[in-house]
Amino acid sequence: MPLAKYAAISLPESTHASGWLREHMQSDHSKLTSLELPQFQSGTLDSLIEGSEELGKIDSQLAGSVAKIVDIFTNVLETSSFQRTVQNRPATDYVETFKWNTSKFRLDKPIPELVKLITNEAFSLDADVRAAYQTYQSARSDFAAADRKRNGDLSIRSLHDIVHPDQFVLNSEHLKTVLVAVPKNLDKEFRNSYETLVQYVVPRSAELISSDSEYNLYAVTLFKKYEPDFVAAARDKKWHPRTDFEYSEDTLNNMRKEFDLTQQNESKSKNDLVRLARTAYSDIFADWCHIKAMRVYVESVLRYGLPPSFDYYLIGFHGSSLEKNFNAAKKQLVEKFGYLGGEASSKNTNLHEYASLVETDYEPFVFFDIEIV
Ligand SMILES: *[C@@H]1O[C@H](CO)[C@@H](O)[C@H](O)[C@H]1NC(C)=O
Ligand SMILES: *[C@@H]1O[C@H](CO)[C@@H](O)[C@H](O)[C@H]1NC(C)=O
């Protein structure tokens, strides 16, 4: 469920709708505000129709970008209840007091150029966030691997900090000590059979080195030559020979370094990601609202014609029944202003065709929703 949902609507001035709207759309569960949109450069009807389709596409792409950032935050911060902040205020405030940013998106530029400016910014931020997310994910999995090595069970963890040199036959020409992690339920079978698993296992050489909740770790000494056979036979018995292990002080030190480095890297890439995602959320959300604003304007011109003489409104819904309240309000609006649909489409066949082309739920007047997720 979204955190808030808005209906942005535009009605011809001639409907004198504000009184009715105040009476019916302002209540305990809905908040009516007027939406201030600037005067845009208006193009030809054809370019507006084209622009309208383009805007529709970008609108849903940016909604996707914003939702993706919310996903990333939710995943990284492990909660979905973080502040949605746009230009230093709550996203709801930003929407409810929306003003076109004229210093950033100058109104002497034609609509297609504004669309390009806004989308370029939003798409490039979107790409940056996705890249930072990938970096963070691989840093996280590197750290998880280092963490498994250090803190995993005895069948996978690094053993360098567990074993001692005196538990090994070291520097012998013929003998070798191997380590085997034996599941606890197979312990008895191990003790009864390891000596005869292959030839030339040193009798009574098994030494219990360590235990965790799943495994007992044994050191077994045998003739070097028979190590491969022993390992294969041990695997058949579902023991876990730790052939990856060679006793070495260097490896022990490297492992400690690796753990610390990957941990630092993970937390750095997480900070970078969160910082970038905050900025990107704010900017992409603002960009998205600018695209919505242009949609409302373009659609109004297409429906109601020029010169622009329409009023824009925003109706906001919050709280647990917001979907229900939103739908009920929409139904009421359609009942009240549905007649506008007939008028507009009979006035303009071009538009009529366009309507049947683009949308299945084509409202009889200009109506867009905005969701804050
Ligand atoms: C307009 O955009 C500029 C540049 O991004 C930004 O610094 C400024 O805060 C924005 N103004 C408003 C009112 O959002
Ligand atoms: C941090 O992790 C990323 C992603 O795995 C990797 O590309 C980068 O080389 C790592 N940096 C350091 C200093 O380990």
UniProtKB/TrEMBL annotation:
It comes from the Eukaryota. Keywords: Hydrogen ion transport, Ion transport, Transport. One of its GO terms (molecular function) is proton-transporting ATPase activity, rotational mechanism. The keyword Ion transport applies. GO terms for cellular component: vacuolar proton-transporting V-type ATPase, V1 domain. Coiled coil: none annotated. The keyword Phosphoprotein does not apply. Pfam families: V-ATPase_C (PF03223). V-ATPase is a heteromultimeric enzyme composed of a peripheral catalytic V1 complex (components A to H) attached to an integral membrane V0 proton pore complex. Belongs to the V-ATPase C subunit family. PANTHER family: V-TYPE PROTON ATPASE SUBUNIT C (PTHR10137:SF0). Subunit of the V1 complex of vacuolar(H+)-ATPase (V-ATPase), a multisubunit enzyme composed of a peripheral complex (V1) that hydrolyzes ATP and a membrane integral complex (V0) that translocates protons. V-ATPase is responsible for acidifying and maintaining the pH of intracellular compartments and in some cell types, is targeted to the plasma membrane, where it is responsible for acidifying the extracellular environment. Subunit C is necessary for the assembly of the catalytic sector of the enzyme and is likely to have a specific function in its catalytic activity. This is V-type proton ATPase subunit C. It comes from Diutina rugosa. The lineage of its organism: Eukaryota, Fungi, Dikarya, Ascomycota, Saccharomycotina.
